[in-house]
Amino acid sequence: MKLLLDFLPLLLFFATFKYADAQPEWAAGFATEHLGFLVSGGQVPAEVAPVLLATVVVMAATVAQVLFLKLTRRKVDLMLWISLVLVVVMGSATIYFHSEMFIKWKPSLLYWAFSLTFLVSHLVLGRNLLRKMLGGELQLPDDVWARLNWAWALFFGAMGFANLYVAYEFSSSAWANFKAFGSTGLIVLFTLAQGIYMSRHLPAPDEATDGAADAKEQGR
């Protein structure tokens, strides 16, 4: 359920863009009629209408996602709050200026926010986010946790630049494909690689049991 909720805004963005991109004249007319009052000049060009409509949908979906979590008394992660702020700010700029580049920058800013969070928590606060999230389930050496933290920081930094490269060098359709499948696939592959790396440094079952017992004893 949580996985579907996390990916729902992305899926709705992609579906809306593809539908509108297949009939840009209709999309331009629909966007001008229903969103013209929000757009500078009141007219939505056909070449940006698909992205604009998809942006409106992803903004509404992200707001609904946060409201659903709040109403069901579930935790709203910090990164979701950051995503909400970015999608509202960059989405509003996309709509008003009818320029697709604003919303295309949003994933990069989000990736860089992730990267900065990993770096600041480690270098400034002296905390390892991965260890905080997974340390209760996995026992790994300190240097391994540090490498994993650095790896995620560098990965998200690189993903931000990759998104901008696709946004500026390829069509909006290609960028939408990359956003929905390319970036998601890269994250899945990187996560799998991290899992393999962690598995090579996990203690043997008997060592893990002893380590857990020692930790419990020290906590008394």
From TrEMBL:
Membrane topology value: Multi-pass membrane protein
Transmembrane segment boundaries: 46-69, 78-97, 109-130, 150-168, 174-193
Keyword Cell membrane attached: yes
Principal location class: membrane
Keyword set, alphabetical order: Cell inner membrane, Cell membrane, Membrane, Transmembrane, Transmembrane helix
GO-annotated cellular components: plasma membrane
Record's subcellular location: Cell inner membrane
Lineage: superkingdom: Bacteria
Primary role: Plays a role in cell envelope biogenesis, maintenance of cell envelope integrity and membrane homeostasis.
The family this protein is said to belong to: Belongs to the YciB family.
Protein name: Inner membrane-spanning protein YciB
Species the sequence originates in: Roseateles depolymerans
Taxon lineage: Bacteria, Pseudomonadati, Pseudomonadota, Betaproteobacteria, Burkholderiales
